[in-house]
Design brief:
Helix content is 36%, strand content 12%. By secondary structure, the protein is an alpha/beta fold. The strands form 2 sheets. It has a 3-stranded parallel beta sheet. The longest helix is centred in the first third of the chain and has 16 residues, at 9-24. The chain is globular, with a radius of gyration of 17 Å.
Amino acid sequence: MKGSHFVSRRTFIVNSGLLLAGAALKIPGAGTSNTGKEPIIDVHVHTDYHGRTNSELVAHQKKLGATTSILLPAWRPDRDLKGIQFYISGRERWETTGNEACFQLAREYSDMFIFAANEVPGLPETISTLEHYLEKGAPMIGELKFAIACDAPAMQEIYQLARSHKVPVLMHWQHGSYNYGFERFPKMLEKYPAVNFIGHA
């Protein structure tokens, strides 16, 4: 029809997903479409990724035009994790940094970055570490990218924490590598209906 504006299914899904993610994270301007300029929210940024410096990261995000970027911490490579891995590649595991690095960069560039909270599931200090950074202002837990079942008790402790703090959880899905048992995840959605899960694969 003349004058009609058609949007592809892919464009609709991507844009809707970004708006929902931004609204769930309570980012100013996100979830609305009546502003003069739509926010560009990058929900997946790692510090020190493949050796990229903080200044290079800042320049990269500015060039992208990202109005808000969420820094996702990796696990701490300072001890034996008994087979639980953040990444398969040993090199990658060492080239992304953790909670404190993300917190400090977000504090330095508070107009550009916010930070998530993350920790390996099932450690004695997992919940206290997550709580510590949630109390410092982290609006999200993630990214959960661990070689563990998505419905394991240790993961459910994290979902329960997310529910109590009313924050979303970002999960990395990769069959046979991370968050095992994707076919069972609908049960987790039923069990934790108040938790907003953000997934990518």
